[in-house]
Amino acid sequence: MSKLHFSKYQGTGNDFLLGDNRAGLYQDLSQQLIQKLCDRRFGIGADGLILLENNEHADFSMKYFNANGHPGSFCGNGARCITKFASALGIITDNCTFSASDGPHRSINEKNGMISLLMQDVVDMERQQEHIVVNTGSPHLVLFVDDINKTDVVTVGKSIRYSEAYNQQGINVNFVQRTDDPNSILLRTYERGVEDETLSCGTGSVAAALVCAPALDGPTQITVQTKGGPLIIRFVKENNRYHSIWLCGPAEPVFETHIDPQKLIA
User: Fold this and answer.
1) Which one is catalytic: 75, 81, 96, 248?
2) Most-buried pick from 98, 199, 223, 230 (CB within 10 A)?
3) What are the pLDDT digits (tens) for 210-245?
């Protein structure tokens, strides 16, 4: 395997390695290699790796891998980053469609630099005594806390993620604090696959916003303040169904590099 080109992008501090796999150059990426590439001490460092691939029915496909090297479920911030990447490659201009692990999506490369991503509809929420579980392309558990800055996200998040209920499939654990503004919340997330707190989580931000939706039906916009910056979630609630869900925020290139995979895993 010769040297491979990777672009690194970040969306509110959630960072990803992106590769253009339309020619099949990245087909032989092993779990070990992806894990090494995402390692922040022995590799490039990222929360995940995404390959852009051909798709007959859309502008492209998005193939996502967690930082541990395993194929992942849908990643909202990663999808916004790969939209910006596809624009840089000249594949798209303003609007695009793409396929991901949870099905088709649409995204918009806004003129103000923001990327808006249309999510899948959400129908079911599992409301338990102390938390709520909701799937927004990835499974999320949402907990409310009084002081998010004093919450031990890693310790508590890991204990839930590896509990008997979630050990096998894993779950992302989101800690939410309400603010004086009913349309703004604070969020910190422990992500499975990364097995640590990330600066931001797109699907987690959507899950938290939906859980915090007003009791009355109708359109809503909620600002989710993550450690990496704000994300805007717009959606419509109708008879306990959530549709027209848009995840909006920045996505920016960080750097590009070529790396010899054989040297990395030697």
Assistant:
1) 75
2) 98
3) 999 998 999 999 999 999 999 999 999 999 899 999
- Any catalytic annotation for residue 212? no
Distances (CA, A) of 220 to 152, 162, 233, 237: 30, 34, 8, 8
Identify residue 221 by its one-letter amino acid code: Q
Among the options 38, 81, 96, 201, which is catalytic? 201
What angle is formed at CA 146 by the lines to CA 144 and CA 148, rounded to 5 degrees? 80
Domains of the chain plus CATH, in order, are 4-115+252-264 (3.10.310.10), 125-250 (3.10.310.10)
The pair of structure tokens assigned to 79 is 């999808």
201: annotated active-site residue: yes
